[in-house]
Amino acid sequence: MSLTGFEFYATTILIYGAVDAMACLGLNMQFGVAGISNFGFIIFQAAGAYAAAVLSLPPAATSNGGFQSYILGWNLPWPLPWIGAALAGGLVALPFVFLVGKRLRGDFAAIGLLVSAVLLNLLVTNYVPLFNGDAGLSIVPSPLQNIFNAQGVGYQFAYSGVAIALTIGIYFLLRRITESPYGRSLRAMRDNDIVADSLGKDLRSQRTGMLVLGGMIAGLSGGILVGFITLWAPAAWGYAETIVLFAAVIIGGAGNHKGAILGAILVPLGFEEVTRFLPSIGSPAFIPAMEWVLIGLLIITFLWFRPQGVIPEKRRILSHASGSVTVAAPPPDFDVTTDSPAEIDASGRDDSSDQLGDGPLESPGSTASTVTTVHENGPSSESSHDVILATRGLTKSFNSVTVVSEVDISITRGRLTGLIGPNGAGKSTTLALLAGTLKPSGGQIIYDGNDITSLASYRRARAGLVRTFQLANEFKRLTVLENLVCAMPRQPGDSFFGSLRGRRYWGAAERTNIERAEATLEQFGLSAHADTYAGQLSGGQRRLVEIMRALLAEPTVLLLDEPMAGVHPNLARRIGNHLTDLCANGMTIVMVEHELAIMDEFCNPVVVMAEGRVLAEGTMAELRTKSEVVEAYLVG
Amino acid sequence: MSVFMPSFGFGLISAAVLAIAAVGFTMQFAVTNVLNLAYGSIMINSAFVTYWVNRTGVSVWLALFVGVACGAVVSWCLNRFIYTPFQRRNPAAITVVIVSLGVDLIGTFGLQAIISGSDVSYIMSQGRELHILGMDLSVVELIIFAICAVVLVSVRLLLKFSRLGKAMRATAANRSLARNSGVKTDLIVSLTWLISGALCGLAGTVFAIDAGTFGATSAELYVVLILAAVFLGGPGEPYGAMLGALTIGLATEISAAYLTSDYKEVVAFLVLLGMLAFRPFGLFGSEKTS
Amino acid sequence: MSVELSRPGVVLNASGLSAGYEGRAIVSDITIEAQPGHVVSVVGPNGSGKSTLLKSLVGVVRVLEGHVTVDGKEITNQTPEHVATLGVGYVPQIDDVFPPLSVKENLEIGGYLLKRGDVASRVEAVLAFFPKLSAMLARRAGKLSGGERKMLAMGRVLMLSPSVLILDEPTANLAPLVATQLLEEYVRGFADAGATVLIVEQRAKAALRISDWTYVLGGGRVVLSGPPKELEQNPVFVDSFLGGGTRR
After folding, report:
1. Which phi and psi (to 5°) does residue C69 adopt?
2. Would residue B94 count as lying in a domain?
3. Cα distance from B196 to chain A (closest Cα, Å)?
């Protein structure tokens, strides 16, 4: 019994739809969630299709008189070719890791992947022994065709059923990963990779994971497709096919897996089907060409008018909105009603001086709850004058201009050390060198007795050396609460395999983390904004988010780059008090700051830098008596 | 006689065409930071404009000027009405690249829809074959080479000695400071897109002349060669692009002579991948401090 | 000191000025004036809006309210390239040169608005003022040291013989001796030659030494103003700005 026209049409649509949806899901995971612009995505689908074909085909010499040549030809039974397809997609992804490493700017990496797709297509087209060259592979066996009639209705519907089931399975798998702490880290990397790195996220590992996972999904989709259409040639995977998938993801809604599926239905599938029913206009090449034109137009139109797509990424609500927020909220430690730079008022306002009179409300004990004190000696570390962080001959040059030159500093444990100096003195660069954001041109950095000069920045963050940035650096499309929880160390769900084990595995830790983050939010008076996108906050609020986030990363040494810039002076003072409390509980803080009044009040010792060198060190009172400091900085 | 000198000759002509294209591409990147992947489609559209004029009986060497004008105008419009509005929104760099891919699809396949897919040739004579230093070159190829030489010297003179050229370089280096110095940078950016677009149109036409027959998708992969030349010399560096084009042009043709012509672009692709992976700022470029 | 380097100064005036980004004011209700032959300095803590104020005067940052005039002519929200044609020279704090261009080319771009024939002689005049630059005409500006670079930045602005000079923290990142020389010799020199000079400085006391009038900014507003001698005596000034030993 053979298929009627309609049955053939229905199964074809179902299988193509499943394959396209699967590919879009994989691409969306890479592009929409992890921010990897994989312009070579089609490579992985092709790898899977070829793998499935040569695994299921009989040896080349024996097949139909050997009219096509190819490698392997292992004649494997289903489902081995499909498994092979997925593995091939994943393996082929590995060499591309070097292109999406953390140093190359995103559009350059994308170009590299695009070129790789073109290059590989060219090689496969011209090197016949591999996959039969330009002509491609044909009469690829369908799965289990020796048992069932591959042309039968039942078989065809079963095939589409399996394809759809696998797509649904992949949807749930990806959702499980995306909604886990690991998924949050991926989205943080997408929003700002340098900051994610500074909070201990291993960018290379995360990007490798997503390249391989996306590659496996693409590979499987290729395997399913080739088992159905029974042929596969270079013409099927031109680099432009990737653009179609990008168009689908952008139109459907990048970052949302439902959007990816919708995009797959609208763009690759929808286009094919709609044009099927168009009367032929002009030459045979006209309609296919106009399809491409329309895809180009849709990409540009959507990116301009609706860049978030038809189904936008949804906001994740983490807070226990009704539960933990007390009705009569106690006055928070931090008042952020006056936080925009425009509202800073150096002369002081009456009402805010009143607030200043309230002083810090929290006792040192409760502030300590936001920080896990790594050091055994606790609050009385003032007595132990040990050095936790030191540099020797630290030097940094950009294009033969030396910005930091032969710097030797020693940071004492449990102290709030200030770093001051004129603009361009090399303070921020020094901080970046300590945190590993920049690689030194020379010299050594010793942390807790170990030489960390060549340690990657994310490893330093995991070892307790955490920095903040001078400019606002929130993860814009994460909520405030997500920003905070994201930074917390030792999350069981913050690894690829941890995320696969599901909420049952990481849920309890997540709840505790959220509670801690909410407590911190309350302390800083930002509870009302827990579920606001961080990108929508005002400048001062974003600074607070950044400080909270750094604190929740449980630093041993906290490196702050102008944390008070653009913050109301009274609020700055409160932050200063809070930092002092943290130091009293064993934390070590290094703070770059311009306002000498802040230095006077909170920092001891203060290191003065000028022209890339350390000029002097001491209390502000001592520094004022030193002529070279006065010369360079206070007076000029 | 070895195959070296003949392939060297081919390489020089390929390099000449590529150099014209690459200089235009890199100038666009320098002033607006756009990797304009639609460049190849504008090239081929310009080549077809030349073709249509050529069909009316006009000599291809005159029709070429219409193609050049087409490249200039289309490129200017593209920057003015698409890239600039997108860039005003401060998107991720990748957004503009995706937009340029969209434009590329529209340009390439829009043309495809119009010309209904068949390949065409200019009506022109190839001229005599000449033997120079072991290279077999036709008169047309020599003309292409001469055009390239004139263009590159002109670009060099423009950038190095003219007031406009210096203003273009200043605008590329620091647009805000250029404005403070009295440079009307919007005008300079427009002129840069007109000039680089003219180079694009010229490159398209000489590419088509060199190719003999061409269709709507003939330049589809050419942008990859351009990218290879541009990245070899450092993106945004016109002299680097010239040098890169020479290297890529010679390397592809000479490797084609010794290996097989099927793989001749492979060298270019591998060079580009290597540059991206290890020295994305070019052989002579240096990383920006910021 | 070559007197013809700058044209006779004209009055620069801003009244009721508010300016900022995306409709949000960073500086509000600022009224300042600079007279020919005077150095007028603007000092204040970091983040008080000093740089934004200067940028709003030359058209880099949008003016939301108020007026800016030069010699009585309205220049509010004119484009930077137009402001340059009116004899207002502006040296930003960072990105103050064109790094890939040679020293000579930087100066030539500075003289972009001059008649073609006048550029070469003008370059000579500026080089006579900064003889150190003459030895490095072919060097790329990106390879200069901090002091040389700042000289080039000032030289670029002098190419148009400005009547008003606006300098944003010219001594940032300079060695103390170089900074002192720059302020006392060059900046003061411009004013003594008749130009109007408006300068933002973080080395407050050094700025006061060369100024005829000083405005103190805090939180985007003028909190104090007066002759430097008076300000130095004012405890509010010392306390709010220098954070000196008077507190507690």
Report:
1. -130, 150
2. yes
3. 21
Helices (H), A382-536: 427-435, 457-462, 480-487, 496-500, 503-523
C169/C244: higher pLDDT: C169
User: Looking up tokens 């074909």, which residue turns up?
Assistant: A53
C247 touches chain A (CB under 8 A): yes
Q: What is the CATH number of the domain that holds A408?
A: 3.40.50.300
Chains that touch B (3 or more CB pairs under 8 A): A, C
- Domain assignment present for residue A446? The answer is yes
Q: What's the domain range around B266?
A: 4-278
Alpha carbon separation from C167 to A60, A157, C81 (Å, rounded): 77, 76, 17
**What is the CATH class of C3-242?**
alpha beta
Q: Which residues pair with C24 in a beta bridge?
A: C21
Kindly report, residue by residue over B188-218, the tens digit of the pLDDT.
999 999 999 999 999 999 999 998 899 988 8
Q: Which residues pair with C165 in a beta bridge?
A: C89, C197
- Record: contact B180-C85, CB cut-off 8 A: no
Range of the domain at A160: 5-237
Q: Global pTM?
A: 0.85
- Given a contact cutoff of 8 angstroms between Cβ atoms, the answer to whether C77 and C63 are in contact is yes
Q: What is the pLDDT of residue C238?
A: 64
A320 domain residue, yes or no: no
Please indicate, yes or no, if residue B272 is contained in any of the structural domains: yes
Asked whether residue A283 is domain-assigned, the answer is: no
Show the tokens assigned to B226. Answer: 């351009």
Domain ranges of chain C: 3-242
At A311, give phi and psi (nearest 5°).
Answer: -110, 95
- Enter the tokens of residue B114: 């119009």
Distance, in Å, from the CA atom of C66 to the CA atom of A166, rounded to the nearest integer, reads 65
Q: CATH number, domain at B205?
A: 1.10.3470
Q: In the numeric block, which tokens belong to residue A49?
A: 């299709």
Q: Count of domains in chain A?
A: 2
- The answer to whether A299 and A250 have CB atoms below 8 angstroms apart is yes
pLDDT tens profile A529-546? 999 999 888 777 888 899
CB pair distance less than 8 Å for C105 and B174: no
Shortest distance, CA B81 to any CA of chain A (angstroms): 12
Report if residue A378 sits inside a domain. no
